[in-house]
Design brief:
Blueprint lengths: L1 H22 L1 E9 L2 E11 L3 E6 L3 E7 L3 E10 L4 H9 L3 E6 L2 E6 L9 E10 L4 E6 L4 E6 L2 E6 L4 E6 L3 E5 L4 E6 L3 E5 L4 E6 L3 E5 L4 E6 L3 E5 L4 E6 L3 E5 L4 E6 L3 E5 L4 E6 L3 E5 L4 E6 L3 E5 L4 E5 L9 E7 L2 E6 L4 E10 L4 E3 L4 E5 L7 E9 L5 E8 L2 E6 L4
Parallel strand pairs: 3-7, 3-9, 4-8, 4-10, 9-11, 10-12, 11-13, 12-14, 13-15, 14-16, 15-17, 16-18, 17-19, 18-20, 19-21, 20-22, 21-23, 22-24, 23-25, 24-26, 25-27, 26-28, 27-29, 28-30, 29-35, 30-36, 31-35, 32-36
Antiparallel strand pairs: 1-2, 2-5, 5-8, 6-7, 31-34, 33-34
Length: about 400
């Protein structure tokens, strides 16, 4: 009876080992490329709902495909004179692939020898339907694409690219660019030393960089972006927009709701906005088009141009102010507003209005430096439009709007 039981246990153990061997298949080969030895490992393991990658070094490519397994190719390169020496180095950089709960884990720690001779490349294919894909490396670039679920990527020393992500996407790097294509959910991006480029995001966008430009094609919902040293360009925002930079221009296309725009050193341009707009720059011109609500626009040095297309009842109190520069506003002919305009130090400058209800007054006539101001109610009066420049002209132009 004991012999039969022992034989049964052995049979089950052998069956288990056989199943484990079938579950994960692996092929390894060693070859030389110039002065570098390469160990190439190809493997496959049945997929789960999630995939997680973590390595101290290496560039990583994770791509979704129509397949049931996680397949991978790992190339470890070592610059050594002999194959035996290269193998010893590679042994100190073990790569493991395993299943933990509902996640396939792929990990590689720091090589024990840190001579700088070893590098690694990881090419991984996962099922397109993967719900979560996480990739982290401390020393290389990361690519993640064609995933129907969520994708997360981080690196301490390389660029990150993502495309065709069905749900949310997050990316963080300390030293490279971030390039995002299409994302079906939200996108959260952080960059400590490079540019951020985004194609199209259906959800909310939050992006920040300490040393680069930010460029966005389309965000269907709200967008919040910040740069400590670059320009910002956004073609279309479906919701509320907040954009700020400490050292560059801001160029915005269509905004579905309101916009808050601020730069310490560049011009501001806005094509249209569906809500209130705030635009502030320390040095540069401001040009705002197709404004439907109220506006606060200020610059220390540069002209301001604003075109209002607001309907009756939608216009709110607005204030446009520059220290040095002209102010030109375009108002609908039927807009009900109260005008308060002033030139603090006019020297050959004046206030011009196409509306009869605006009265211009000059201090001490036309000669020397003097103050010029204008007050008036157009179409019966309404919310206040305040215009002020220290040195420049002010023009209030009437535009016949097509309703």
């Amino acid at each position: 009876m004991k012999t039969a039981l022992k034989s049964g246990c052995i049979a089950l153990l052998m069956l288990g080992l056989g199943l484990a061997a079938v579950a994960q298949q692996k092929q390894v080969r060693m070859y030389r490329e110039g002065a570098t030895w390469v160990e190439e490992t190809k493997g496959s393991i049945p997929a789960t709902h999630s995939f997680s990658f973590n390595s101290a070094i290496g560039t990583v490519h994770v791509v979704g495909a129509a397949q049931p397994n996680v397949t991978y190719t790992v190339k470890i390169r070592v610059n050594r004179p002999t194959e035996e020496m290269a193998k010893r180095d590679i042994e100190n950089f073990p790569v493991s692939v395993m299943r933990h709960a509902d996640t396939i884990l792929m990990e590689a720690d720091w090589p024990h020898q840190r001579s700088g001779r070893l590098s690694a490349e990881f090419y991984i294919q996962v099922p397109r339907e993967t719900q979560i894909a996480k990739v982290q490396t401390l020393g290389g670039s990361v690519e993640v694409r064609n995933i129907s679920g969520k994708a997360y990527a981080s690196t301490a020393g390389g660029s990150i690219s993502m495309d065709d992500i069905g749900s949310n996407a997050a990316a963080s790097t300390m030293g490279g660019n971030i390039d995002i294509g299409n994302v079906g959910g939200d996108a959260k991006l952080e960059n400590a030393g490079g540019d951020i480029k985004i194609g199209s995001v259906n959800g909310v966008i939050a992006a920040s960089t300490s040393g680069g430009n930010i460029q966005i094609g389309r965000g269907s919902s709200g967008i919040t972006v910040e740069s400590a040293g670059g320009s910002i360009a956004i073609a279309k925002c479906g919701g509320q927009l907040r954009a700020s930079t400490a050292g560059g221009s801001i160029d915005i296309g269509e905004v579905g709701m309101g916009a808050e725009l601020e730069t310490a050193g560049g011009g501001i341009r806005l094509a249209s906005a569906g809500g209130n707009v705030s635009a502030n720059t320390q040095s540069g011109g401001i040009r705002l088009k197709k404004l439907t609500r109220g506006v606060l626009a200020e610059t220390q040095s540069g002209p301001i141009e604003a075109e209002f297309v607001t309907r009756r009842g939608e216009f709110t109190d607005s204030h446009l102010e520059t220290t040095v520069g002209d102010i030109v506003v375009y108002l609908p002919s039927d807009l009900a507003a109260t005008i308060k305009a002033s030139i603090e130090m006019a020297n050959g400058h004046n206030i011009f209005s196409d509306f009869d209800g605006v009265k211009v007054t000059k201090e001490n006539g036309d000669y020397g430096t003097h103050e010029v101001w204008a007050d008036g109610r157009i179409n019966g009066g309404g919310p206040v439009l305040k215009l002020h420049t220290t040195n420049g002209n002010i023009e209030i132009k009437k535009v016949a709007m097509k309703r």
